[in-house]
Amino acid sequence: MRILFISDLHGQCSAVTALPEADLLIVGGDFTQFGSVEDVAAVLHSVRIRPEPCLAVLGNLDPEAANALLDEQDMSLHLQQRQFGGRRLFGIGGANATPFNTPYEWGDADMAARLAASHSNAGPLDILVSHAPPRQSGADRIGNGSAVGSQAVADLVQRRLPPLVLCGHIHEAAGIYAFAGAIIVNPGPFGPQGHYACIDWPDGQNAPATWLAQCR
Fold first, then answer.
1. How far, in Å, CA of 167 to CA of 169, rounded?
2. Alpha carbon separation from 189 to 48, 111, 170, 213 (Å, rounded)
3. Phi (first) and psi of residue 96, to 5 degrees
4. Which three-class secondary structure state does DSSP give residue 3?
5. How does pLDDT run across 28-64, given as a tens digit for each residue?
6. CATH T-level fold of 2-214
7. Following DSSP, what letter does each residue of 174-204 receive, concatenated?
8. pTM of the model
9. How far is 194 from 18, CA to CA, in rounded Å?
10. Angle of helix 108-117 relative to helix 151-160, nearest 10 degrees?
11. Closest by alpha carbon to 62, among 135, 121, 134, 7?
């Protein structure tokens, strides 16, 4: 199975049609830049021109109300466990608190409670999709070296031990990292160049082959 992962579009989706073919497209949030539900819908329309199925979470710059839109289109991973191609996925939208008072933030204690109330403890997990990276994973380092990721997400990774974690949010931390036995992937902002991560995960293989690329 081949998965493409993109994140942090911020309304820039023209390169979506230049992405290579895949079995599944996953979007890690920030469809918009402080946009409305209607703005999210417009970006979703552009993304869903793609032929493959799409699953997604929202980012902290998207309105939380747009979760209903993802649910209506049967593509939401937010606090839901789903299966695709024999792989089990779970997602977390929004992000832990920032200094910027963005539209879709939550406290780590609140998210930990939500995770405890969800199906996040149910059985094995192959892929965690979270807009916010796990704290101290490397994918959460900002320019001054501070780790600003989510402790709730880090705790979930350490508890569920997924082989693969897909995240975004921290543009300057684009890269592939190792944390708690997982491969942590932050492709950076999608942008006009179309930055993405490609994940090849054949049946019977414990961990995927993962690399970053751009399509323009």
1. 7
2. 19, 24, 9, 12
3. -65, 165
4. strand
5. 999 999 999 999 999 999 999 999 999 999 999 999 9
6. Purple Acid Phosphatase; chain A, domain 2 (3.60.21)
7. -EEEEETTEEEEE----TTTTEEEEEE--TT
8. 0.98
9. 8
10. 30
11. 7
What CA–CA distance (Å, rounded) separates 104 from 30? 10
User: Which residue, among 1, 2, 39, 12, has the nearest Cα to 195 in the 3D structure?
Assistant: 12
The domain locations on the chain are: 2-214
> To which residue do tokens 């209903």 refer?
68
- Output the DSSP codes for 50-106: SSS-EEE---TTS-GGGHHHHHHTT-B-BT-EEEETTEEEEEE-SEE--TT--SSEE
Nearest of 21, 215, 14, 5 to residue 131 by alpha carbon = 5
pLDDT digits (tens, 9 = 90+) for 155-188: 999 999 999 999 999 999 999 999 999 999 999 9
Residue 50 burial by Cβ neighbours in a 10 Å radius (0-12, 13-18, 19+): middle
Amino acid at residue number 94? G
DSSP strands (E only) in 124-169? 127-130, 164-167
Look over the chain and give the mean of its residue pLDDT values, rounded to a whole number: 96
Decide: 141 and 171 in contact? Cβ < 8 Å. Answer: no
| pLDDT for 124 beyond 90 | no
